[in-house]
Write the structure tokens for this entry.
Amino acid sequence: MILDIGFETMPREDLEAIVLRRLKATIDRVYANVPFYRKKFEENHIMPNDIKSLEDLKQIPFTTKADLRDNYPFGMFAVPMDNVVRIHASSGTTGKPTVVGYTARDINTWAELMARALAAGGATRGDMIHNAYGYGLFTGGLGVHYGAEKLGASVIPISGGNTKRQIIIMKDFGPTILAATPSYTLHLAEVAEEMGVSFHDLKFKFGIFGAEPWSENMRQEIEHKLNITAVDIYGLSEIMGPGVAIECHEAKKGLHIFEDHFIPEIIDPGTGEVLPYGETGELVFTTITKEAFPVIRYRTRDITSLNPEPCICGRTHIRMNRITGRTDDMLIIRGVNVFPSQIESVLMEIDEVEPYYQLVVDREDNLDTLTVLVEVGERLFSDEVKHLQDRERKIAKNIKDYLGVSAKVKLVEPKVIARSQGKAVRVIDNRKI
Ligand code: DLL
């Protein structure tokens, strides 16, 4: 269902006029209120009224995660703290967290966009949403929660963890929409099976999955296991939280970016050059309606491409393809670039391999080594050693053939790899220690 027909199906020309007006207002605001931006503009001899077209945005330098860290915790806010009603933070793996703030109007905008997103993913006001994204500083839980309420659906604010209890609630309450990370969803399916509960007997119709990379093969696995339609939702704290982009359940082919609020660009991560539609590079966003924490040309480090083709659902907003990785989780193994999601795709093609895996990178005698640990079903594991070794060799060969990197594959018994309660940890890189 398209919740906001006016904005979501607006002819591109009209949309671009609104985007330009909102962009100019944002530029004026950050210049006046955020010393970091004023200084950046002045160093580059840019005045706010130099920005006369969307093309002119390209003159403005990028904002990076390091800029946010340098202004930790509240230095990038464009309003006085009196007007900030909510603070979130993303932990990241290194250094200080990124802190973001929202005015009351920002919270309302976010709720509206999340309501739109849930509707695009198949939810209606008649649905009950089991929200297993974590509540807290992470934006997933509260983001989905406010959106679900705005839509008028009933929300179960279960958060992550306490998995057995989650299954009982699913059985007793009969929720129809599942919102969770894909990795936690697999864990839910596993625990349900142990408890003798089949997802085929539950009432779920749609799943709204995101917050971490997942492959097309993983989607099929989840859809099959849970008997639902699974859509991909994208967002990041720095831009808003969940609900920056989502797939429509009609096409499930790329995520519509809510362009009346966010301007996307794809750049070459090495040179910073803006790339044409269809080319793969780093996703960059400019927010054009946020009050407390606007960002101009923020480098997300996420890798994707943009698709301007019209969609069967009727939305005119551009689509981004599934995120294939991050510039900072790209592994370079003996000079070959590898993303965990590419390995996942290869693994999921093999029968009897379970969707639980971890990549361990080491350095032996100055050479990088990649070990892929992946679980197999009980039956295969208790099979003859020779069969296991054959399977390991086959997977290693596929990884070499598809990705050009040599890996040691180790099949492990069920439940060896730690289960995720939120975002999965896919890589252990011992080289950094
Ligand atoms: O993960 C917001 C979110 C919550 C999105 C719930 C979707 C659902 P952060 O914790 O700031 O915010 O992490 C943002 O997670 O830059 C991506 O690298 C990754 N990410 C988010 N959604 C997807 C997705 C939330 N659908 C970072 N596919 C982003 C791949 C994703 N990666």
